[in-house]
Amino acid sequence: MNVVGEFIFAAIILMIWSVLYKNNPFYKLISSMSVGLMLAFWLKGGIDAIIKDVLRPALLDMNLARFAVLVLGVVMFLRFYKGLAFASKWPIAILAGVGTAIATKGAIPTMILSQIKVGSFVSSDILGNVNNVLIWIGVISTLVYFMFSFKHGPVVGGISKIGQVYMMIAFGVIFGQYVYGTSVMAQMLYLLKYPGYYATIIAVLVLAASIVREKNKTKPAEETKA
Question: Where in the chain does DSSP place strands (E)?
């Protein structure tokens, strides 16, 4: 049974990667299954959390804070009734306001202020000075790149170009770390050992047959044109 499960796992990996060749029924099947399983998992977790953290404390323990959360959650579903749809804007506004405040409070100190607070530019450590300058330039130029409220002239446009270069380098490093990391490399190695190589062989044969079939379809069209 373990061999069968490992073979199915390898087949699923190859079905997902098959989209790199072209869109096909195998990829559509696995993507639909992945979305369905993910939604089912999150729905089950959400229902359990509502029952454990909201319904029981609100109705059994008479917790006023949890009861208020329960009322706001029920009011949010009033958007499906035309006459009371306006009331659903209240919990949405509270959710958006609180969420924005929490995100802003956590993002500004860690993602902006902490990166601007670099060390000294004139210390005895020359490499440290260069690194601090590069960090400061990267943070400022990247922020300028996302300022769309005014026109990017020669000066601002040049600074935003520097920010674009920083972002491309960062994305490349992240992608390289992901590919070189344990996830992708482990999957590639998994396909080359038993029983994964059986699924790999089948996938290669199916790919070759598909390529030959596509070429055979294009030949009659080319002969007709000639």
Answer: none
* DSSP class of 78: G
Provide CB contacts within 8 A for 43, sequence distance 6+. none
Secondary structure of the chain: what % helix, strand, coil (to 5)?
85, 0, 15
- Distance set, CA 215 to CA 59, 98, 142, 150 (Å): 67, 58, 47, 52
Dist. CA 118–CA 139, nearest whole Å: 11
Each residue's pLDDT tens digit, 62-92: 888 889 888 988 898 888 888 888 898 999 9
Q: Which residues contact 144 (CB under 8 A, 6 or more apart)?
A: 156, 159, 160, 163
- 13 CB neighbour count, 10 Å cutoff: 19
Q: How far is CA 56 from the centre of its chain?
A: 33
pTM of the model: 0.56
Burial of 212 (0-12, 13-18, 19+ CB in 10 A): exposed
- 70-78 long-range contacts, CB within 8 A, separation 24+: none
pLDDT digits (tens, 9 = 90+) for 28-46: 999 999 899 999 999 999 8
Is residue 40 within a helix (H) or strand (E), and if so which, with residue range? Answer: helix 25-50
Sorted by where each begins, the domain ranges of the chain are 124-190
